[in-house]
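Following up on my earlier thread - several people asked me to post the actual chain instead of describing it. Fair enough. Here it is, all 189 residues.
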Amino acid sequence: MAPYTDEAKPGPVNTYAQSKLDMESLLLADATRTQPVVCLRSSIILGPLGPFGNTHSTFLHFCQSRQGQETTFWTDEVRSVINVNDVINVLLHFYTSMQSGSIDDIKSSVYNMGGPERVSRMTMAVAVAKECGFSHEVFIPDEKANQPTGGDNPVRSPLDISMLSCRLEDLVGLKFHGLEATVKAVFAK
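Reply from S.P.:
Thanks for posting it. Predicted structure:
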């Protein structure tokens, strides 16, 4: 049950999720490895536009582009969004540990890598509107659970994959940024 701990039993609901679980299992079962295996599970990674991105390249920028336009956002699809800079810092931690030889202190494991709060798509859209100074009153709240699968929604996806990432934060010595700080950094003037 969400929010999920690192030890929660996975329950993939689509081929994509099953393939990720299969890869984790293969990596963790490889007894010939001389280095530990660290599997990082994330949800939505938020950050600035990439160098070749357009205004729909990230979910936050899509939300910004909806200024003044009626747009439906799910209220029941919940994720633990993480700031891309936090992801980079986690990866740097493991890289520098490997380079310095202190990787022996790290055991092969699966870690959740999500931000500190559970947020819906609507919560993200409202945060963007507030930070960018426009009204979110035209945003339409709806529940994804009410939508039929197939057509525009061909892949089944869990409604709530929020996660607890305390173990990873403790291991790497970081406190991950929340949604408000992330949105502020992305749209800093």
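The chain has one domain: 22-28+36-47+58-186. That should answer part of your original question.
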